[in-house]
Amino acid sequence: MNDSSQTTGGTIQKRPAAERGRAEHGWLHARFTFSFAEYFDRNHMGFRSLRVMNNDIIEPKGGFPTHPHKDAEIFTYVISGQLEHRDSMGNGSIITPGNLQYMSAGSGVRHSEFNPSEDSQTELYQIWLLPNQSGGTPLYAEKQLGGSAIEDGLTLLFSGGNKPSITHIRQDAEIFFGKLSAEKSLTVSADEQHPHAWLQLISGQVKLLGETLDKSDGLDISDHPDSFEVSATSDSKFLLFRLE
């Protein structure tokens, strides 16, 4: 377990990539930020409503056959390669690098995920939030980040609030995509409604609140009432979750 350190008005705890749980299944190489499947660590059971942060590498033609989900907010971000998705709502698409998929399982949904390539691996994050309600009609959406992500800033992707043009999710949370060039920085504004945050670094290196994060490191930021700065040492991408 990593020691938590104090910040002004809050605490932070780094989750180094090298200390994550792991599973090797031949076609799948998985790294678990939080306890998942056969991996159990009582010190890492989730963070607020964030329950799953899996970093998977899927070998060519490998994948997850059709399986069910219920009462989960599921987000999939493709880092490299491709992911072919099909579900019981009738959706079928191939998610490409830099794009993000959202599925609210609601009262129940079945889906499959495969790497359709004959020769290239697929790397992705699959992330689950607990919903703030049980049941409901399953929902599906995709975010084509591509050139739409704000340079050297934060792009709001999903929100539990009713914000125009932002995909609504079933949890009081906000999910941002962060993109910073080397030597650039951005300020994360204070948010009394969401005083907790989790930053998951996808690539590059950033510094914030006295910590340095490298590829696949995570940082929980608890009860932090003030704004804070994120600075990039190299070109960096990350996901930022603002949680109640």
Provide structural commentary.
With 244 residues, the chain is an all-beta fold. The protein has one domain (8-243): Jelly Rolls, CATH 2.60.120.10. It is built from no helices and 21 strands. The protein has strands at 5-7, 10-15, 21-24, 28-32, 50-58, 63-69, 73-80, 83-87, 92-95, 100-104, 109-114, 122-129, 139-143, 153-159, 167-168, 173-180, 185-188, 196-208, 211-214, 218-222, 228-243. Strands 1, 2, 14, 15, 16, 17, 18, 19, 20 and 21 form a 10-stranded mixed sheet that branches. Strands 3-4-5-12-7-10-13 form a 7-stranded antiparallel sheet, with no helix packed on it. Strands 6-11-8-9 form a 4-stranded antiparallel sheet, with no helix packed on it. The protein is globular. It starts with a strand and ends with a strand.
Keywords:
10-stranded mixed sheet; single chain; 244 residues; mainly beta; Jelly Rolls; 7-stranded antiparallel sheet; globular
Q: Biggest sheet, open or closed, and with what strands and sense?
A: 10 strands, mixed
CATH architecture annotation name: Sandwich
N-to-C SSE series? Answer: EEEEEEEEEEEEEEEEEEEEE
Number of structural domains: 1
Question: Helicity level, as a percent range?
Answer: under 10%
The fraction of residues assigned to DSSP E strands is over 45%
Number of E strands: 21
Distance from N terminus to C terminus (CA atoms, Å) equals 24 Å
Which class in CATH terms? Mainly Beta
CATH topology label: Jelly Rolls
C-alpha Rg, in Å?
17 Å
According to CATH, the homologous superfamily is Jelly Rolls
Gross morphology is globular
Instruction: Give the helix/strand class.
Output: mainly beta
